[in-house]
């Protein structure tokens, strides 16, 4: 199995995720960046505090009042009759130890991160092996055959928020599998869609990612000579052709 | 007195401390389903919310829809307001701004904007914020604070906040290298925050 780490220049942008606090505070992130930054915010008290302060400052910009028509008031007060206010968020549970540990090694630096990433891969692999390793009689699924093929090539994309996407392609099986870890959910009304490109340059839809942070998906279509795999954000249900720039792409040359 | 250096003030987003506390209380009561409190909140904030909506989406009918959406969302999520994290004014305007930006970025608006992208770039009035902000003491403080920003910081913030553009689009509009507009926006907001004396 070969590992290809495709952390490239466009990915470098994510490396300075803290620097997005200002753009986030004034809603100047696209849907995907926003989802990523919000997942970063959950683990970064510094950014949360900064965003709060910058929003306070931004509110000062909105100082030109315009009186709305009177009927709007009536419409709104009538409208709330049909809407139940959300319950308050209950006090967060006490920090569990794994959380503290995670935060610590996130700030300790690259070598540990790499080690942790390797452990994650190992765990993911183990989890995949377990269901069928105990029972040799059960035939392998197509996904399992790809993941365990002798010629399986693995292509990794790391994102700064800790999420990863990995494409595993087996030419002999003619199929590819994508594995995601800690992926931010697709924006509301959108799906992550998978794509495969053949040597003639045609890009074919290869399925949708399920709505979960850690997913393993067998790409639809023939990957025996695919040259490229990508993930884009598309309207719910997917598109016949990509309509946005890929959030992750994998050049599948061995 | 040097108008360029307004006295720092802890008052949140232009409201006096008393008014700010009152707004926060109205939000808390709204969260409990108190319609009268919500009506008072509407009366206190509607013009400011609508002013922001008009500024961002421009089209009057769409601005009204945005204002309506924003207030319904404020009613629905009032329990999420946390006075320890910021003022009620800022919380309300954050919701309104998000609704306005969502509106201008909707698919139809996006295609319309593409064709006018460059015209808009030409017609950006760099002093629009300062010109419009005239009457209140609060507006004078903002105007003064904006003079503390570099031109690029101010333009980047205005394009993002009032134009509804992403930082990547802002970079293109201002001919900045990709990835630097977000830094200008952040630096400018930090200076604004520190000049006005809000946040921390
Ligand atoms: Zn951060």
From TrEMBL, chain A:
<protein>
    <recommendedName>
        <fullName>Regulator of SigK</fullName>
    </recommendedName>
</protein>
<dbReference type="GO" id="GO:0006417">
    <property type="term" value="P:regulation of translation"/>
</dbReference>
<feature type="domain" description="Putative zinc-finger">
    <location>
        <begin position="16"/>
        <end position="48"/>
    </location>
</feature>
<dbReference type="InterPro" id="IPR051474">
    <property type="entry name" value="Anti-sigma-K/W_factor"/>
</dbReference>
<keyword id="KW-0812">Transmembrane</keyword>
<feature type="transmembrane region" description="Helical">
    <location>
        <begin position="110"/>
        <end position="129"/>
    </location>
</feature>
<keyword id="KW-0804">Transcription</keyword>
<keyword id="KW-1003">Cell membrane</keyword>
<dbReference type="Pfam" id="PF13490">
    <property type="entry name" value="zf-HC2"/>
</dbReference>
<keyword id="KW-0805">Transcription regulation</keyword>
<dbReference type="Pfam" id="PF10099">
    <property type="entry name" value="RskA_C"/>
</dbReference>
<dbReference type="InterPro" id="IPR018764">
    <property type="entry name" value="RskA_C"/>
</dbReference>
<keyword id="KW-0472">Membrane</keyword>
<dbReference type="GO" id="GO:0005886">
    <property type="term" value="C:plasma membrane"/>
</dbReference>
<dbReference type="InterPro" id="IPR041916">
    <property type="entry name" value="Anti_sigma_zinc_sf"/>
</dbReference>
<dbReference type="GO" id="GO:0016989">
    <property type="term" value="F:sigma factor antagonist activity"/>
</dbReference>
<feature type="domain" description="Anti-sigma K factor RskA C-terminal">
    <location>
        <begin position="113"/>
        <end position="247"/>
    </location>
</feature>
<dbReference type="InterPro" id="IPR027383">
    <property type="entry name" value="Znf_put"/>
</dbReference>
<keyword id="KW-1133">Transmembrane helix</keyword>
TrEMBL record, chain B:
<dbReference type="InterPro" id="IPR014284">
    <property type="entry name" value="RNA_pol_sigma-70_dom"/>
</dbReference>
<dbReference type="InterPro" id="IPR013249">
    <property type="entry name" value="RNA_pol_sigma70_r4_t2"/>
</dbReference>
<dbReference type="InterPro" id="IPR013324">
    <property type="entry name" value="RNA_pol_sigma_r3/r4-like"/>
</dbReference>
<keyword id="KW-0731">Sigma factor</keyword>
<feature type="region of interest" description="Disordered">
    <location>
        <begin position="106"/>
        <end position="131"/>
    </location>
</feature>
<comment type="similarity">
    <text>Belongs to the sigma-70 factor family. ECF subfamily.</text>
</comment>
<dbReference type="InterPro" id="IPR036388">
    <property type="entry name" value="WH-like_DNA-bd_sf"/>
</dbReference>
<dbReference type="Pfam" id="PF08281">
    <property type="entry name" value="Sigma70_r4_2"/>
</dbReference>
<feature type="domain" description="RNA polymerase sigma-70 region 2">
    <location>
        <begin position="41"/>
        <end position="107"/>
    </location>
</feature>
<keyword id="KW-0804">Transcription</keyword>
<protein>
    <submittedName>
        <fullName>Sigma-70 family RNA polymerase sigma factor</fullName>
    </submittedName>
</protein>
<dbReference type="InterPro" id="IPR007627">
    <property type="entry name" value="RNA_pol_sigma70_r2"/>
</dbReference>
<dbReference type="InterPro" id="IPR013325">
    <property type="entry name" value="RNA_pol_sigma_r2"/>
</dbReference>
<dbReference type="Pfam" id="PF04542">
    <property type="entry name" value="Sigma70_r2"/>
</dbReference>
<feature type="compositionally biased region" description="Basic and acidic residues">
    <location>
        <begin position="106"/>
        <end position="116"/>
    </location>
</feature>
<keyword id="KW-0805">Transcription regulation</keyword>
<dbReference type="GO" id="GO:0003677">
    <property type="term" value="F:DNA binding"/>
</dbReference>
<feature type="domain" description="RNA polymerase sigma factor 70 region 4 type 2">
    <location>
        <begin position="140"/>
        <end position="192"/>
    </location>
</feature>
<dbReference type="GO" id="GO:0006352">
    <property type="term" value="P:DNA-templated transcription initiation"/>
</dbReference>
<dbReference type="GO" id="GO:0016987">
    <property type="term" value="F:sigma factor activity"/>
</dbReference>
<dbReference type="InterPro" id="IPR039425">
    <property type="entry name" value="RNA_pol_sigma-70-like"/>
</dbReference>
